[in-house]
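Can anyone check this?
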Amino acid sequence: MNPTQLQKSEYASFYQPYIDALDENINLIDELEISLHKTIHFIQDIPMDKFDYRYAEGKWTIKEIIQHIIDAERVFTYRALRFSRNDKTALPGFDENAYADAVNPSANKRHLKDLLTELTMVRHSTIALFKSFTPEDFLKIGIASEREMSVRALGFIIIGHQNHHMKIFRERYL
């Protein structure tokens, strides 16, 4: 399954930049694995003095963004689980800034190794869940943030969200 199979009705338009951040030839499950390894290696090559850097007042540090990627993946994966299990309960959006305000002071104090371990564990859990889905599960639709979303769109959004932040690291932090 690749992102060209997605219909625009499977995700909210505000996720389009994440879908646009994907190579159209990727396979969802393979890319969940590949993108994790690319991200870990990329982050490990960042000079240590850059981890506390903010490119503008009020912007997050690299460690804060890593924590944000972890948190967002957990939220997206939870949505995929609920939708795949035919849960029709409309799920609220999540306030990424409220999450950041709650965790960012501690994220900056964490060892990079611990953040990367958590990122890896979360991704491995995501991969295991997505591997368990049947072809029919991937097409299931639920409601989050008052918009319809498919299970497969959530998988691609996880990857695109991570790619989006890796691009920001390259352009604004390094």
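Reply from J.R.: I decoded it. The longest strand covers residues 141-144.
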